[in-house]
Amino acid sequence: MLFDDELKALLEKVKTIAILGAKDKPGQAVNTVGQYLINAGYNVIPVHPARTGVWGLPTFKTLADIPHPVDLVDVFRAPQFCPDHAREVTSLMPKPQCFWMQSGITSLEATELLQAQGITVIQDACTMVEHRRLLG
User: Fold this and answer.
1) Where does 52-107 have alpha helices with state H?
2) Cβ-contact 127, 37 below 8 angstroms
3) Nearest partner of 17 among 79, 39, 27, judged by Cα
4) pLDDT class of 136 with cuts at 50, 70, 90
5) Under 8 Å between Cβ of 55 and 34
6) For the residues 68-86, what does the mean pLDDT come to?
7) What DSSP state is assigned to residue 53?
8) Which CATH number is associated with domain 4-135?
9) DSSP 75
10) Residues 6+ away with beta carbon under 8 Å from 22
11) What are the tens digits of pLDDT across the range 25-55?
12) What span, in angstroms and rounded, lies between the C-alpha atoms of 26 and 113?
């Protein structure tokens, strides 16, 4: 995990966040966090292979389908899927600055792969909680 000043700087610099596993289903953490990030002023891009129009926004099936650069990939997927998503991230041009695995999600394989490419990795932390704590 980054030091607080580094994490705050990252959250201030980031403008576009792709949310992997996006769902606008009430009561689910991804819905609460997604809506929070939208309200915090980020350009949120939902990514889900089957859903369309999450939070009333255009929703893409994969990260590769997003037609413009993404600053941060916010992951709401089970840990076993993270290495495949990490490989997808390494093929994006330009590469995102950060791959953020939400609370309860860690992947050593994804972390090693991404850090080798110079991408910041955050594991087992909530973007909403950290944003509120540091930028409230």
Assistant:
1) 82-90
2) yes
3) 39
4) confident
5) yes
6) 97
7) S
8) 3.40.50.720
9) E
10) 30, 34, 46, 47, 48, 51, 54, 55, 59, 76
11) 999 999 999 999 999 999 999 999 999 899 9
12) 34
